[in-house]
Design goal:
The structure is a homodimer. Chain A is α/β, with parallel strands linked by helices. Chain A folds into two domains: about 5-165, Molybdenum Cofactor Biosythetic Enzyme, Chain A (3-Layer(aba) Sandwich), CATH 3.40.980.10; about 175-254, Ribosomal protein S10 (Alpha-Beta Plaits). Chain A has nine helices and twelve strands. In chain A, the strands form three sheets. Chain A has a six-stranded mixed β-sheet with strand order 2-1-3-8-7-6, sandwiched between helices. The first copy, chain A, has a four-stranded antiparallel β-sheet with strand order 10-11-9-12, covered by helices on one side. In chain A, a hairpin with a 2-residue loop joins strand 10 (about 200-210) and strand 11.
Chain lengths: ~250, ~250
């Protein structure tokens, strides 16, 4: 099996760190990449600070197949992402002719002045290609393996659709969830043994409180459907054994 | 004015990266720290991977006053946070007598076996102190400037309350939001000039679509109440000028 493509997400913006805005972009991108068989390995939330952005971009783009950033590409003084990307890649930044054309036409249509601040949104690092923005026209861009998107969820989501065809995808990991109706501490040891038996299956345990008492979702994930099913059967057999032992109220394959 | 304490959040867990779980912990911790006058500077989401956890902990604890981690302190094989913290600090790990006592009493009361997996939750790095868990007893811990908490939101939130008295707090930043009812591109240039006039006030612009058309929230934040109010008045004057110019439908101080 070839190695799956990997990715990191970089959320840029003071508003998430101050608590004012509750992020909705990470979950969306995580689901999106999972569906494409791309492994999201890491996410970072950082402030609108040039040094921090440049350092994070360079750390992440060196390590992963793709980096997806959100935020900081609007017309105001706190929108510094495009300049930071240029700095991270060591290239210049200038108005992209196609972006200028798109924005000029859009502002004309909207009866808005194509002023300097608005046209800043046409500036992209040298060598970057545009990412279409069907919502509010101001484009995102791709430079190297970094995709630079807006922070507004609706626009970011449209940009993901626009850029997706460029991505090398992987085999999609499938998952099976078994709800173990009992204490996580009772399932822990046999579950660890099952994990050792199935190294190509990642097994996680996510406890929760149900109306009937403590329970835990055992989530198995793998790109190998046969091994995934074998591991799930083994977990079910183990859970049934614990039920017969009186150590679980029951189990359910979700 | 003395420098405010700074912090980073480290969310540990594959389930957020796969998209299966939508994180709720970052927003809570961000609000909590803001209310204590502690500046959250960065957040990272990483997988249940020893090398990644150790590297992230060491990078963050060196840079910020505090680090708050969530996740990976349960009884199952994928709960490796305590061991990784010990490794990051270069210390051993062993069963903490007080944690053993708390857990033994709790499992006895609950009629559960104090088995090896469950008692793993009493293991903390040498030199760590416990963080009380009023929800499900298994404690978090503090080592150095790192606070290690559970990933389940209800438990994490109780742990924040338990550890908060240990934190050095700062002057709480106040914020004022002015809703500018017009295009962000029209407010951008004067807003940048106002930002330059008030270096102790951080001004952000967060566009949104209202039923009446495009609008943007201008959010001013500062620890200096006088400067904050001065900056807000200046923004209001500017917004009113744009309204009179026909470049805005209006504005509203929220």
């Amino acid at each position: 099996m070839t190695q799956a493509p990997t990715a990191a997400v970089l959320l840029i913006g003071n508003e998430v760190l101050s608590g004012r805005t509750k992020d909705k972009n990470l979950g969306f991108i995580a689901d999106y990449l999972s569906a494409l068989g791309i492994d999201l390995m890491e996410a970072r939330v950082i402030a609108d600070d040039e040094n921090d952005i440049v350092a994070a971009v360079n750390a992440l783009r060196a390590r992963y197949t793709y980096v997806f950033s959100t935020g900081g590409i609007g017309p105001t003084h706190d929108d510094i992402t495009a300049d930071c990307m240029a700095k991270a890649f060591g290239v210049g930044i200038s108005h992209h002719p196609e972006a200028v054309e798109i924005l000029t036409a859009y502002f004309k249509e909207m009866g808005r002045e194509a002023n300097e601040a608005r046209m800043r949104m046409a500036r992209v690092p040298e060598g970057a290609t545009l990412i279409n923005n069907p919502v509010s026209k101001a484009p995102g861009f791709r430079i190297g393996n970094v995709f630079v998107m807006a922070g507004v969820p609706k626009i970011m989501q449209a940009m993901m659709d626009a850029l997706a065809p460029q991505l090398v995808t992987g085999v999609v990991a499938k998952s099976i969830t078994i709800e173990f109706q009992g204490g996580e501490g009772d399932v822990a040891k046999p579950l660890g043994a099952i994990q050792d038996l199935f190294p190509t299956v990642t097994i996680g345990s996510y406890p929760f409180e149900s109306p009937q008492g403590f329970a835990t979702n055992l989530v198995l994930r793998s790109r190998d459907a046969g091994e995934l099913e074998n591991a799930a059967q083994t977990v079910v057999t183990m859970a049934e054994g614990l039920r017969l032992d009186g150590k679980a109220r029951g189990w359910k394959r979700l």
